[in-house]
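Ticket #4471: structure output looks truncated?

Reporter: J.K.
Steps to reproduce: submitted the chain below (115 residues) through the standard prediction queue, then opened the result file.
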Amino acid sequence: MLLLTVKHIIADFVLQTSWMAIGKDQKTGWAMPLLAHCLVHLAVAMALILIVAPRFWFVALIDFAIHITVDRAKGICASRFGVQQEHPWFWTLIGVDQALHHLTGFGLSIFMAAN
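Returned output as attached by the reporter:
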């Protein structure tokens, strides 16, 4: 769980550019920023998993698929309802997004620990 939390902090906050963060939530032109952001998650997850538990390399692909799905759903909500930083739902949407990512890490951790 700690490994996937570190991965999340690095990929979601340290390595995410404003182009990715803003672009992935737009009504149009969201695909490339979203893909770039999620590929960063894939690369960091794959690197860390290959170092610590290489037999679980495929978990990075699962994390990628879930991350792109969660972020796209957030982007749809943000663009459809005009959720910008001033909007009352902004922090709720960010919180739900982060909670889902951390639950993903928790679930993937349980899977790896059980196998």
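Triage note (M.O.): checked the attachment and the full token line is present. The chain has a mean pLDDT of 96.
Status: closed, working as intended.
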